[in-house]
Amino acid sequence: MRAVLQRVSRASVTVDGVVTGEIGHGLLILICAMQGDDTAKADQLAAKIARMRIFKDDAGKMNLSLRDVGGAALIVSQFTLAADLRGNRPGFSTAAPPQEGKRLYEYFITRMEAEGVPVANGVFGADMDVALHNDGPVTIWMDI
After folding, report:
1. The domain spanning residue 102 has which CATH number?
2. What total of structural domains would you count in the chain?
3. Coil, strand or helix: which one is 14?
4. Separation in Å, CA 107 to CA 55, 119, 126, 142
5. What is the distance between the alpha carbons of residues 139 and 144, in angstroms, rounded to a whole number?
6. CB-based contact 66:50 (threshold 8 Å)
7. What's the domain range around 117?
8. What angle do CA 19, 20, 21 make, to 5 degrees?
9. pLDDT at position 28, please?
10. I need a labelling partner for 3 at 20 to 30 A (CA). Which of 11, 18, 45, 75 fits?
């Protein structure tokens, strides 16, 4: 699975003029299931993200996890993370097929919740308007 994490002071996602998810302090997680991904990879990714120490401690060092700071996660599906950029027009053939991508996206959400992280989310496959206020900025790319 592939993810881009953005540390935020707040973030929201809107579909057809309706806010479907919003958080305060935490992480915006853009997620893409790749061909061959399975629930074990989603488990591994959720555990890693929940424990990743990318929030500042009292000394200003990135030493605290999402769980440590009581942050939330806004999880948004984004198949374009699978872009193949060999030419001028990206291809997305390495992304999981839509039905499998949706299943793994929904499973990942449940795994983040099981890690003790409050979760809000977008709508799989929808045209979404994502708004965020970066904190730092801190942006991390992950491939598991």
Report:
1. 3.50.80.10
2. 1
3. strand
4. 25, 12, 18, 18
5. 16
6. yes
7. 2-143
8. 95
9. 98
10. 18
> What is 48-111 written as a DSSP string?
HHHH---EE-TTS-EEE-TTTTT-EEEEEE-GGGG-B-SSSS-B-TTBPPHHHHHHHHHHHHHH
**For residue 35, what are the CA distances in angstroms to 38, 95, 96, 104, 126?**
9, 5, 4, 11, 20
CB 27 within 8 A of CB 8: yes
One pLDDT digit (tens) per residue for the chain, 144 residues: 999 999 999 999 999 999 999 999 999 999 999 999 999 999 999 999 999 999 999 999 999 999 999 999 999 999 999 898 888 888 888 999 999 999 999 999 999 999 999 999 999 999 999 999 999 999 999 999
